[in-house]
Amino acid sequence: MAKSLSEILAQIDIRQLYEELTGESFIRHKGAERAKNVFREDSDPSLTYRPKSGLLYDFAEQKAYSHLEIVKKAKQLSESEAISFLYSFIGEKPPKDIIKEAKEIDKYREFLSTSLKYAQKYESKIRKWAEKNGIPFRKEIFYHFKVGVLPDAETIKKFGFEPFKGFEENALVFPLADRFRRIVGFQIRHMERKDFRMIGSPGLFGMLSLKEEEGMTEVVLVEGEKDLLSFACSFDEPMKVIS
Question: Which of 180, 183, 179, 3 is nearest to 89 (CA)?
Answer without folding.
Answer: 3
